[in-house]
Design goal:
CATH class: Alpha Beta
Strand content: 15-25%
CATH architecture: 3-Layer(aba) Sandwich
Largest sheet: 7 strands, parallel
CATH topology: Rossmann fold
Shape: globular
Helix content: 25-40%
Oligomer: single chain
Order of helices and strands: EHEEEHEEHEEHEEEHEEHEEHH
Number of domains: 1
Radius of gyration: 19 Å
Length: 282
């Protein structure tokens, strides 16, 4: 039985997933664009996903594939290369080598939604993104879902945690929050991201699309006010929100489908997650 796991885009999240799987006896190959070491017992594979020839030497016996892309710039070209070209090249390489993984897990984003007025969304809501990032991620999802490999797509909210402290920095810097109209934010702690990626690879979890956010979408002002109170700082000044939010949408995400599979959050709201981060000196 094919037992190897290929993690394409093995950064922070991929490394944590890989270490967890390796501790259970899986052989884990972490594919990275740059020649950087990975912690043992992970096996590093240097390859540029945007170059088909670089993928000619994939190891045999790949039973599970994670695709966790990270564009190197925030522009359309970089997102197309990371989410569309790279995934297409990897799928083509697997097909040429006659490898048939039992599951493909794609890390996507709630940016695929284009709702503007704070509507509640779930996996069945229309996906009509207004941003290039959302459009490229949606294109990547369609590639994965049509690949012929049983596929799970995780649409992550904004990831926060150690090393991902942008909102804390905004509060410490006294930056304003958008109050009119209210701008909603959907988050998930980095550790819950890792657990979700592990959870959906279980064969007992049906393939499909899952929203991966915490239980408590809230306005950005609510979050920043709470953070300011915890840090003993003044609450942020208010400003008008840009139309559609920072990246082209303004919505509240439901995570019922993921939780119905048995997934449980360690940090069900920003209070638990940011509370732990602040207590640890974040």
């Amino acid at each position: 039985m094919d037992n190897a796991v290929l993690i394409a885009g093995c950064g922070d999240l991929g490394t944590a997933v890989g270490l967890a799987l390796a501790s259970g006896g899986r052989t884990v190959i972490g594919l990275r664009r740059r020649a950087e070491p990975l912690p043992a017992p992970l096996h590093a594979l240097q390859a540029d996903l945007t170059r088909p020839s670089a993928l000619a030497g994939l190891p045999d016996g790949i039973g599970l594939v994670y695709y966790i892309a990270t564009p190197d710039r925030f522009d359309d070209g970089a997102y197309r290369q990371a989410y569309v070209v790279g995934l297409r090249n990897l799928l083509d390489a697997l097909a040429r080598q006659r490898q048939a993984p039992r599951r493909l897990v794609l890390a996507s984003s709630t940016a695929v939604y284009g709702q503007l007025d704070g509507e509640w969304v779930d996996e069945d809501s229309p996906t009509e993104p207004n941003s290039f990032s959302g459009r490229r991620m949606l294109e990547s999802e369609q590639l994965a879902l049509n690949s012929g490999i049983p596929c799970t797509v995780l649409r992550f909210g904004g990831i926060y945690g150690p090393g991902r402290e942008r909102m804390l920095a905004k509060v410490r810097n006294g930056e304003p929050c958008p109050a009119k109209p209210p701008l909603y934010t959907n988050r998930i702690h980095r550790d819950d991201c890792v657990q979700a990626l592990l959870h959906v690879a279980d064969e007992q979890v049906p393939p499909g699309i899952y929203l991966a956010t915490d239980d408590a979408p809230c306005t950005q002002c609510e979050l920043m006010d709470w953070l300011a109170d915890q840090l003993g700082l003044p609450r942020p000044p208010r400003t008008a929100a840009a139309p559609g939010g920072r990246r082209g949408s303004n919505k509240r995400c439901r995570n019922d489908r993921l939780k119905a599979t048995g997934f449980r959050l360690r940090y069900p709201s920003y209070r638990e997650g940011y509370g732990a981060l602040i207590a640890a000196g974040g």
